[in-house]
Design goal:
By secondary structure, this protein is of the alpha/beta class. Helix content is about 30%, strand content about 25%. It comes from Sulfitobacter mediterraneus. This is Cupin.
Length: about 350
């Protein structure tokens, strides 16, 4: 999977009061990873957030904000009670692991020394990387929640060092508020990152400051980094067919995996042939097509299609003066199949 964007319903390390409304906005935009803190709202409200997230098929995260052992254990128990998918943060692994055992909750504690509220990551890159290696070696630790941008180090170097030391997924957190930092996180090898306050406060570069615009911009930027932006736009069949006049000479209009979308103009009779390995679909865009088989004949009108299986001998005939046909067939398909004549085309032009 690509870089994971986790939207945190939080500000200043607290779940915001209007989290439910913000969650609805995020889910409507297709955000697939949503988290919240264990402070700011009562457990009952957090349960409601979690149920909504899970009902939409998204992944839920609870990030621990605890400064002592007892409160961190209570947070872990809250994660179990709420039923989140992932528990982020915390430093008291020995106390938390028994709480999570057998619960099906992935655990990503903080590496390094965490101080204050909001939390700050203290220590050198070497110290934090060593902590990461020690934590990642523990059974029950599935990854790490790195407060990368709340440290005073070279952050990309820190992320790279922690990823290399851990050998498990690393989520980068803390003050990520622009595309360049997201790119740095990806390039450094992190599996994902969190954004909360920046989106809620309209700080991310976007067309507008409202949450929908903010999240839309983040999702777009992540999709581009992950190579999930389509380079293709729509095509007009009328315009494409208008670019050529040759008959029985297919043009490639697009490709889906190993299947090509071809456009061809038919006039008169073609030759009897079959294809050893390829099935073909003929969809009539304009005109009328007669498909001859050895046992019958089929007339295909505009808007209709017919599938010719591999190995079946057939002969297309244009019943109208010109018949415009969309073909869907493997890229290996030669128009005349087992036959070979002056109309055989091996190298197809594109439209």
């Amino acid at each position: 999977m690509g870089l994971r964007f986790i939207f945190m319903l939080t500000r200043n390390d607290r779940t915001v009061e209007d989290a439910a409304a913000h969650l609805a906005t995020a889910l409507a935009l297709g955000v697939r990873h949503v988290g919240f803190k264990d402070v700011g709202l009562p457990v009952a409200a957090l349960k409601g957030l979690n149920q909504t997230i899970k009902a939409k098929g998204a992944t839920s995260y609870l990030e621990v904000v605890s400064l002592d052992q007892d409160s961190e254990v209570r947070s872990a128990r809250a994660a179990v009670e709420i039923g989140v998918d992932v528990l982020l943060g915390g430093t008291r692994v020995d106390e938390v692991l028994p709480v999570l055992e057998g619960r099906g909750i992935a655990y990503y504690p903080f590496p390094g020394r965490i101080e204050g509220h909001p939390s700050v990551l203290q220590g050198s890159i070497e110290e934090i990387a060593k902590s990461a290696a020690d934590l990642a070696a523990r059974d029950g630790v599935d990854g790490l929640d790195l407060l990368a941008y709340r440290s005073n180090t070279d952050v990309p170097a820190l992320i790279r060092a922690v990823c290399a030391a851990a050998g498990k997924p690393v989520i980068a957190a803390g003050s990520i508020a622009d595309p360049s930092r997201i790119a740095d996180v990806r390039d450094a090898g992190a599996a994902g990152f969190t954004i909360g306050t920046a989106a809620l406060d309209g700080l991310y570069p976007a067309e507008a400051n409202d949450l929908a615009s903010q999240l839309g911009a983040i999702v777009r930027d992540v999709a581009e980094l992950n190579g999930h932006i389509s380079p293709f736009g729509k095509k007009s069949l009328d315009r494409a067919f208008g670019t050529f006049d040759e008959t029985w000479s297919p043009r490639v209009a697009g490709q889906i995996n190993n299947m090509q979308i071809k456009l061809a103009k038919f006039s008169g009779d073609f030759t009897w042939h079959f294809h050893h390995d390829e099935d073909e679909l003929f969809l009539v865009h304009r005109g009328r097509l007669l498909m001859k088989f050895r046992d019958r004949e089929e007339i295909i009108e505009e808007g209709e299609f017919i599938v010719v299986p591999r190995g079946v001998e057939h002969c297309p005939v244009a019943l109208s003066e010109s018949c415009e046909v969309v073909l869907l067939e493997p890229a290996s398909t030669v128009n005349t199949g087992t036959a070979s004549d002056a109309r055989t085309v091996h190298d197809l032009a594109e439209v």
